[in-house]
C-alpha cells in the first residue's frame, strides 16, 4: 500500500493521465494531478474545519477544509474521498454527494479537485492525530472573521474556496 500512497497520476490540461509519479516529485515540479475535498456540515450549516497536524509537510498547524487528499494511482475520485474521510476524520461508510469539479490552476495547487459534501449532517468527526490536531464547526460569519483577522492561520485552498463562494452555498 505504501507504494500506492506515494504514487499519483500526472494529468494534462484536460485531466487525462499520461504518467505515474511520486507525489513529492509532482508537487516539487508543480505538475497537474488530482485531489478531493469533502465538506462536512452540522445541522446548523456550520462547516467543519480541521487544524492540520504540526508535523504535516504543507501548511502545518493551519486551519483547513474538513477533509482533503490526493487521488492515488488507479483510484477513483469517490474512492479517494471516502478514504480521506476515514483516514483523516474516522468517518466510515459515509454517503457523499459530488458538488462540482475545479480545474487545475495555481490557486488549486495544480490539482483537478472534485468537491464532495457529506450527505448526512451531525456526524461527529474523530480526527486521526497523525493527520489532524483538532477540529471545530464554523459558521460563515466566524470563518469571515478568521479570514479578516487571522488569514495567515488558514490553508490556501480554504481561502480560495471561500473567495469563489464554494463553502456555504452548496451544502
Sequence of strands across the biggest β-sheet: 6-3-8-7
Helix and strand sequence: HEEHEEEEHEEEHH
Helix fraction by DSSP (H/I, runs of at least 4)? 10-25%
Round the mean pLDDT to the nearest integer and report it.
Answer: 91
Structural class: alpha+beta
Note down, in words, how this protein is organized.
This protein has about 170 residues and is α+β, with helices and mostly antiparallel strands. The protein is globular, with a radius of gyration of 15 Å.
Topology:
Elements: H1 2-5, E1 7-11, E2 17-22, H2 23-28, E3 33-39, E4 47-52, E5 63-64, E6 67-70, H3 77-89, E7 96-102, E8 111-118, E9 132-138, H4 140-149, H5 156-163
Parallel strand pairs: 3-8
Antiparallel strand pairs: 1-2, 3-6, 4-5, 4-9, 7-8
Which short descriptors sum up this protein?
3-stranded antiparallel beta sheet; 9 strands; alpha+beta; single chain; 5 helices; about 30% strand; about 170 residues; globular; 4-stranded mixed beta sheet
Amino acid at each position: 500500500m505504501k507504494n500506492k500512497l506515494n504514487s499519483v497520476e500526472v494529468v494534462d490540461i484536460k485531466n487525462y493521465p499520461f504518467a505515474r509519479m511520486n507525489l513529492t516529485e509532482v508537487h516539487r515540479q508543480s505538475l497537474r494531478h488530482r485531489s478531493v475535498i469533502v465538506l462536512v456540515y452540522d445541522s446548523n450549516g456550520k462547516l467543519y474545519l480541521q487544524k492540520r497536524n504540526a508535523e504535516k509537510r504543507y501548511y502545518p498547524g493551519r486551519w483547513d477544509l474538513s477533509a482533503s487528499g490526493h487521488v492515488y494511482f488507479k483510484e477513483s475520485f469517490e474512492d479517494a474521498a471516502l478514504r480521506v474521510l476515514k483516514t483523516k476524520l474516522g468517518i466510515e461508510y459515509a454517503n457523499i454527494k459530488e458538488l462540482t469539479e475545479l480545474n487545475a490552476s495555481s490557486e488549486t495547487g495544480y490539482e483537478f479537485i472534485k468537491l464532495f459534501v457529506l450527505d448526512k449532517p451531525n456526524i461527529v468527526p474523530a480526527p486521526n492525530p497523525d493527520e489532524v490536531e483538532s477540529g471545530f464547526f464554523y459558521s460563515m460569519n466566524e470563518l469571515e472573521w478568521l479570514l479578516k483577522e487571522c488569514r495567515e492561520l488558514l490553508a490556501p485552498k480554504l481561502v480560495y474556496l471561500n473567495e469563489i463562494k464554494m463553502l456555504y452555498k452548496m451544502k
